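Quick one: examine the sequence and fold tokens given here and explain what the tokens say about the fold. Here goes:
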Amino acid sequence: MLLPLPPGDFQAYLFDCDGTITDSMPVHYRAWQDALAGWECEFPEDLFYAWGGRPAADIIVDLNERNGLAMPVDAVNEHRETRFQSGLATVQAVPGVLEHILEAYGRVPFAVVSGSTRDSVTASLTALGLLDRFPVLVCAEDYARPKPDPEGYVKAARLLGADPAKCLVFEDTELGVQAAEAAGMACVRVPPPWDR
């Protein structure tokens, strides 16, 4: 499943991580369900995918509000992250994206722009043997305004010395696509697991 690229001479490829490089969204969802189980907190799968790309702490705050709960954000987030990392051995790369990484590595500079923490992104890329391909990681703690704000993508372009208008973004979420478009970048939409 090779994903078609838009025409253009791109100076850099910028990738979201979860659901884009790593086929990890099902593992993330199971980790969320485990972390929320003791709180009787509803987090339907369609909402989980709709909120893809958002920082986990922000999601917990919104789940508290939606469910009338007072879950401790840090504790729930730590439990979720522990459960996620314990499932990383089962995660594989998204085939169509991996093909572009292997084909363009060494020719086009890469960065990751993720709403996940640096620890989570590093663990995911290490599990796939791809961490060394990405000299620049822009993670949740590296920018103030999450996707759909373009801040993370603009920062990654700057760190790579690339013109934002000459960057190609690989994204699987609507919020991520909006962030790429707001940054003036071309974008490849990575299909969700059920459409691959």
Q: What stands out?
A: The helical segments are 25-36, 45-50, 56-67, 73-86, 95-104, 118-127, 151-160, 174-182. The domain at 12-23+92-195 is CATH 3.40.50.1000 (Rossmann fold).
